[in-house]
Amino acid sequence: MAKIDAYEQDILTAFEKGRLKSVATKGELEKLKAAARATAVKDRRVNIRLSSIDLGDIQVKALEEGIPYQTLIASVLHKYVSGRLVEKTKTTTARSTPSGRKHASD
């Protein structure tokens, strides 16, 4: 098991002693349960090729979220096909152009 800091240890201790209470409403819990049921049924296998850079970025995001990277990929794809994945802002990065360089107008 990975080492945890004092703050994380306090949370773990509180959890183990039953001192933590959920702040989610019944409606929120039902939404989360429905989402879990919808994404938990995985009856097909798919193989895809990703660039090493993209896979690395996905793995970092998954670590930040505390979930396996395959679960993150499945979740993003599910949100996309169900219309719940929307673009917040359009930004151009060095990786978003074919040449790897920003446009002259940027």
Describe the structure.
- This protein is mainly α and 106 residues long.
- It has a domain at 50-82.
- The chain is built from 4 helices and no strands.
- It has helices at 6-16, 26-40, 52-65, 69-81.
- Helix 3 (52-65) packs across helix 4.
- It is extended and about 45 Å long.
- The termini are far apart.
- The model is unreliable at 101-106 (pLDDT under 50).
Question: What is this entry, summarized?
Answer:
The protein has 106 residues and is mainly α. Helix content is 50%, strand content 0%.
Give keywords.
single chain, 106 residues, mainly alpha, disordered C terminus
Q: Percent of residues in beta strands?
A: under 5%
Report low-confidence residues grouped into runs of 5 or more. 101-106
User: Helical segment tally?
Assistant: 4
How many strands in all?
0
Coarse structural class: mainly alpha
SSE run: HHHH
Global Rg: 19 Å
Described by the principal axes of the CA atoms, the overall outline is: extended
Largest sheet report: none
Q: How confident is the prediction overall: mean pLDDT?
A: 82
Helix fraction bin: 40-55%
Distance between the amino and carboxyl termini: 46 Å
Topology:
Blueprint: H1 6-16, H2 26-40, H3 52-65, H4 69-81
Helix pairs in contact: 3-4
